Amino acid sequence: MAEAALIDGKAFAQALRARVGEYAAAFAHQAGRRPGLAVVLVGDDPASQVYVGAKGKACAAAGMASFEHRLPADTSEAALLSLIERLNQDEAVDGILVQLPLPGQLDEQAIIAAINPDKDVDGFHIINAGRLAVGQTGFVPCTPLGCIMLLKDRLGDLSGLEAVVIGRSNIVGKPMAQLLTEANATVTIAHSRTRNLPEVVRRADIVVAAVGRPEMVRGDWIKPGATVIDVGINRLPPEPGKDRGRLVGDVAFAEALEVAGAITPVPGGVGPMTIAVLLRNTLIAAYAHAGMPAPEGL
Ligand code: NDP
Question: Which residue among 50, 186, 210, 263 is the one 20 to 30 A from 234 at the CA level?
Fold first, then answer.
């Protein structure tokens, strides 16, 4: 059988970012201001600093305003809530993102709940989770929305396809399963208590792996021709003589390549979609905030 096609998330994300950039310029022309994203980082977690820096740069590249708020690790909940309230009221701010995880003294649920749901471009607020659950328009978490975009681009109509989502987190697994259900796939959610996981995965026309375990999904779990979306980002221990280990997904890529019909690589698959969708969500928030109809085709 031929090797699987690679799903080029990097190219798809670049195209999406270019479209967002064009619309952001049109928005700025009409509204007299740029779409604005406020990013809040508490503490100095190195990975979070990299993500926040990348989000700021991506905003600038798309012609959006980025407002970074870097707070010390010992910030009190009252101080963070008061910043969020200011951002909720700020007319220049269309989207608010609080970088997770937060230091232990801060209650993540309470912080997310304080964000105006119409500025919750990460889609983590329970109002947006509820909107997704009942099929209303709202903000959908960026990573699963990026995955469904890649799947629809690759497969077109997903109606009737068997999909297995491995992982049930609130930010990836659950919304992914809901998006696939909305797209008329027949969806199974697998997790750490699932029995006979390889057999469950073998049923799937679409496999979405969001586990956080390096190369857990083996090639012989994959149905021949299936489409595999690997959300996992795991760094292996460094090889001798190297400073950093390789990044791998939750799927054993080389094995899956022999069996799948199409697969996302790690890196260069799902990862780049997350920021591109964040920009898209911010643009949509900006149009709604300004009382203007959002453009089609985003
Ligand atoms: P979580 O740790 O929140 O969730 C992991 C899920 O995997 C849980 O539902 C857990 O099950 C399940 N799981 C754990 N072990 C097994 C197992 N042995 N068999 C089956 N299921 C298992 O992770 P996230 O959802 O936040 O992230 C998942 C992965 O995606 C990570 O690698 C993360 O780095 C990556 N990620 C990538 C993003 C991107 O931009 N590309 C964005 C977000 C995440 P249970 O519920 O039973 O514990």
Answer: 186
